[in-house]
Predict the 3D structure of the following.
Amino acid sequence: MIRQTFYMDRYDWTVYAYYAVDDYYTDEIVELLYDVGCRGSDLVSAEKNLSSGNLDTGLTYSNFDTHETVMVIAVTSSALEFAKSWRHEMGHLGDHISQTYGLDPHGEEIQYIGDDIVGKMWKVAKKFLCESCRSKNNL
């Protein structure tokens, strides 16, 4: 598993990202989800997802008040599945920021948010985007 924390200045938003997660890390991530405000059925659902050990899954939880997000991308079966999971979870993060600031979900700003997220995650995410890189890095 790889952990990454990054801050999006323009939106005063902190993201705790986890890559290549398997069920071993369930307790750690559930504790962080609780710390950022995840409760009730959302927390139960997240724990169930994390402990399942299923490939090609993920989750994104955001606390709209504190501007914090926990993003998880499980172990993926291929570079394509990583790209799909990454895009999916980044989409949720972009939506959460857009909702918080009342931005037009069909406008340019949401696209720029997506660009910012890719830029922040690129250094880590690029390792998962080709099969030979994944093999070389034991991912």
Observations:
- The first helix runs from residue 26 to 35.
- The longest strand covers residues 13-21.
